[in-house]
Description:
Layout: E1 19-31, E2 36-47, E3 51-57, E4 62-70, E5 77-83, E6 86-95, E7 100-109, E8 114-116, E9 120-127, E10 130-134, E11 154-163, E12 167-170, E13 173-180, E14 183-194, E15 201-204, E16 207-212, E17 215-219, H1 232-243, E18 251-256, E19 264-266, E20 269-273, H2 281-292, E21 301-302, H3 309-326, H4 332-344, H5 363-380, H6 382-396, E22 400-401, H7 403-414, H8 418-427
Parallel strand pairs: 1-11, 17-18, 18-20, 21-22
Antiparallel strand pairs: 1-2, 2-7, 3-6, 4-7, 5-6, 8-9, 9-10, 11-14, 12-15, 13-14, 16-17, 19-20
Helix pairs in contact: 1-2, 2-3, 3-4, 3-5, 4-5, 5-6, 5-8, 6-7
Amino acid sequence: MPLLPTxxxxxxxxxxxxxxxxxxxxxxxxxxxxxxxDGTAVLDIVVREQTxxxxxxLAHLRATKLRLDSxxxxxxxxxxxxxxxxxVLQLDRPVAAGTELRLTVAYGGSPRPVxxxxxxxxxxxxLEDGVIVAAQPHGAPTWFPCNDRPDDKATYRITVSxxxxxxxxxxxxxxxxxxxxxxxxxxxxxxxxMATYLATVQIGRYATTEHDxxxxxxxxxxxxxxxxxxxxxxxxxxFERVFGPYPFDAYAAVVTDDDLEIPLESQxxxxxxxxxxxxxxxxVRLIAHELAHQWYGxxxxxxxxxxxxxxxxxxxxxxxxxxxxxxxxxxxxxxxRHHHERLAGLDQDxxxxxxxxxxxxxxxxxxxxxxxxxxxxxAVGDDAFFAxxxxxxxxxxxxxxxxxxxxxxxxxxxxxDVGVLLRPWxxxxxxxxxxxx
Length: 437
C-alpha cells in the first residue's frame, strides 16, 4: 500500500504538498442532541506538482459523495478511500502543475477530537451545552476535509446551521444570518489568508458585548467581564502603536460557560473559559497573549512547525509589554530578568529554532523566545526594534515564514548581523547570559 504524504515532520500524517487550497466554502449543519455534524465542503485547489492523487485530511467523519470539476476537461476520481484519518482520491490520469480544480465533498458523522502522542487532543469538542473547536496544531480535520499544513493558507466562507437559541461564531465577519426550520444559519467570511489550524467554530448560548467598533466579547449573559475582557480595546490600541495596524477588521473573544485550562488561538478571535473572567494577572496576561497572536501567528504564520517561537515568543513578549504599559506586576525588563533566572535553573536541552515535536509547546519555547526578542531590542535599541516588529507584519501579512526569513529581515532593517547576534539563543541548547547593552 503506497505511503501517504506528510507535509511537516512535526505533524506526521497531515498535509499533501502536491497541491494547495485557495478557498474553502463550508456549509454545515449541527445538531447538539446526539452530536451530529453534516456538511458540504467546496475546495478551490491549484496543483503544485504533477500528481494523479490528492490526499485530504478528514478524521472521524465519513465522506459520502465527491465531485471534481475543472475549467478544462476535468480528471475523474477513479476511486477514493478513507485511510488513517485521510481521504485518498486516485485520479484517472495525472494532472499538471498549475491546474485548477474544484473539489466538492459531502460528509458527516459525530465529530470528536483527534489525539496525537506529542500534542494530546485537538479539534471539535462538545461542551456541557455547545461546541468549541481548538484545532492547534492538528485538529482541523475533525470538522472539515482540508490540506492540513500550516503553510497552506486560504480564504474561507463558513455557514453553520444550529438549533434556535444557539449563537454560532466563526472566523472573520458575519455576512448573513437566516432563520431556518427549527433554528438559524450563520455565515462568516474570512477574506484574509488563513492556515487550517486557525479556522474555528464556536457554538453556545451567548450574548455579545461590544466594547468598541472593533472589539467584542461573546459570553454567557451573566459573565462578569470587568477588569479582564473589557481591557481589550486598550490592549488593541497599545499593540497597534508597537506592532502596527491590527491586521483584520475586528476581534472577538469567545468565553465558554465551561472552564478551560488554556485559551485557544484562532484567526480574528480567541476562545477562553469562564475562569478567565478575572482581573488577576495570570488571566489578563493570556488575554493579551491571544490578542497579540493576531499579528504574530495569524497575519504572519510559520511555514514549519519547528519555527513556533515566531508565534509564542512574540506573544509572550507582548504580555511583558502590556504589563509595563498597564501598570502590571513588572516592567518588561523585569519580566525578562525574572524568566531568565527561572530558565537558568531548568534543563538546557532545548533548541529554540528546532525544539522537536515533543517540546514545541514547552513553556521554555515561550519564555526563551521572548528573551530572544529582548536580546534583539537591547542590541539595536527601541526605535529599530519596534520598527522591525511593525514592518515584519506590514510586509509579510498573509504569508508563511521561517526563522531565517525573520533573521534576514531584521538584519536588513537594522543594519546589524542579527543572525550572529541571535544564533546562541536560537541554535545553542545552553542559555546565553542576560542581554546587556
